[in-house]
Design brief:
mainly alpha
Length: about 160
């Protein structure tokens, strides 16, 4: 079997797992997508997919990861969250990753609510902060998915043209 075929199969696997990772928060989806595209371009000696498309793909991956990372915190901050709530959202997000998809979603929200209650705020304010954290998480996920499809589009356009 030709070794280049194995490299292409590995790049396809990385892209597929990366696409799944854009929905499942515990997987580094955009990083795996970028790695798959870079591997495919390398295997093709960078003939069809060159420097600028790959640079664009990497920049989109980095932008998507940054947006996803800060979106929940920005959502909480917009609702007037305390410093304790922001720390709680961050810690809840990290701890939640160990508990699958539900934990990755619920962790930042519960962390923000608990942090807000620790700051001696009332339950309605803590609930608003939790809801805003969840909306920030959703916005970050939508942005990450948009970046993933933009990366895919850049790669396909580079292959075609």
């Amino acid at each position: 079997m030709d070794l280049s075929l194995l490299w292409y199969l590995l790049s396809i696997l990385l892209v597929l797992v990366g696409l799944a990772g854009t929905i499942y928060p515990a997987l580094p989806g955009l990083g795996l997508l970028a790695a798959g595209f870079l591997l495919a371009a390398w295997n093709g000696n960078f003939v069809q997919v060159g420097f600028w498309p790959l640079t664009t793909i990497v920049l989109l991956a980095v932008a998507g990861m940054v947006i996803e990372s800060v979106a929940s915190l920005l959502g909480a901050r917009k609702s007037g969250a305390s410093r304790e709530a922001l720390i709680g959202a961050l810690l809840g997000g990290l701890i939640g990753l160990f508990f699958g998809l539900f934990g990755a979603i619920a962790g930042p929200v519960l962390g923000a609510v608990i942090g807000e209650l620790i700051a001696r705020r009332n339950l309605p304010q803590a609930s608003r902060v939790g809801a805003a954290t969840f909306l920030g998480f959703l916005a970050g996920t939508v942005a990450k998915i948009a970046c993933a499809f933009a990366m895919l589009g850049v790669f396909i356009l580079a292959l075609l043209f």
